[in-house]
Amino acid sequence: MTPRTRTSPWLLAAPVLLLLAAGVGLLQAGTQDAPAGDAHAGAANATRPVSAELVQAYNQPGSLRDFVRHALARPEAGGAFYATQVLRRCRTLQATAAPAPEAGATAAAASLSTPAASEQARTAAAATLRQRCAGLSPDDLAEGRIAQAAADGMERGDPLLAMALRAGKAAYQAPERRRSLLFDLLAAGDPLLIQDVALRIAVQADPDTGVRGHRFEGVFHPQSLDDSVELALYLLPCGLGLDCTRATDWDLLLRCANGFECAASREDYVAAVLRGRPGAHERTLAIYQRMLAAVRTGQVAVFM
Question: Are 102 and 251 in contact (CB under 8 A)?
């Protein structure tokens, strides 16, 4: 199994962020880029994420309606970012007859030795997704309403939303500026920001070969040859506080609801992907633990 046959959750987040940027007006004055250069050559300050309390509330099972209202009232803690990410996901769910799988999910499911999801499991996963969005009205999920919530969050200084919107321009930035932005995103230590934004722009092209992959601890890992780093990155938000079980994990629920594998957790999913490859699971978990330690201690330069 290669990373091309495993579905990356941040691929789903990319169009969400692009639409969010379009709604707010990403190029408006006041949305400043961070300075380019080697200002982040050292370590970031290891601090408790400003969103720590929001993460706990986001992890609670059931409807996210009350969470959205709670988060919107706390932009200083990243609440506008959290709320608009929820609203975008629920808007997508509402607009589809059934939740659409992420790109590559079919190949990912075929690569696993676990049986396809049973009808009962698929039904339960789909019901859980609907329950996550229960109580949010069509007006709540309207494009204009979400754009206004994002604009209000920017005006009130939401730090996570500001970084997410800057990431919307990452594709048009020089490599050193992308690295500076990636450093800031990882240093923030927020699991949803890292999952939906940082890991999307962490994919880079080798300057010599043009091959796409990830850099970690000074080594470039091509996606086509080494999936350990990408799978470790898939687990990283879990160690930072995000619930990565099928009780609330959007990615796991989407897979199951669409008839692919119904893993109980991301760790179970990774174990299934690597089954039959001696030492691969242990190596991936070891990389994950080093990544987690790097983010927790502010040593995020190892991802550059």
Answer: yes
Structure tokens at 185: 């995103």
Q: How far apart are the first and last CA of the chain?
A: 25
Q: What is the pLDDT of residues 147-171, one digit of tens each?
A: 999 999 999 999 999 999 998 876 6
Choose among 235, 216, 239: nearest CA to 226. Answer: 216
Alpha-carbon gap, residue 272 to 274, rounded angstroms: 5
pLDDT at 290 exceeding the cut of 50: yes
Task: Report the C-alpha gap between 205 and 201 in whole angstroms.
Answer: 11
Alpha carbon distance 155, 80 (integer Å): 10
Write phi, then psi, for 282 (nearest 5 degrees): -60, -40
Tens of pLDDT, residue by residue over 133-150, are: 999 999 999 999 999 999
- Furthest-apart CA atoms within the chain: distance in Å: 53
pLDDT digits (tens, 9 = 90+) for 66-124: 999 999 999 999 999 999 999 999 999 988 844 444 433 333 443 443 445 688 999 99
- What DSSP state is assigned to residue 28? S
The whole-angstrom separation of Cα 83 and Cα 273 is 32
What would the pLDDT profile of 188-201 be if each residue is shown by its tens digit? Answer: 999 999 999 999 99
* 82 and 74 Cβ atoms separated by less than 8 Å: no
Q: Would you tell me how many other CB atoms lie within 10 Å of the CB of residue 250?
A: 21
* Average of per-residue pLDDT across 279-297: 97
Q: Which two tokens stand for residue 37?
A: 């250069």
Round to whole Å and give the CA distance between 175 and 183. Answer: 12
Task: Give the separation between CA 285 and CA 277, rounded to whole angstroms.
Answer: 14
Cα angle: 265, vertex 266, 270; to 5 degrees: 125
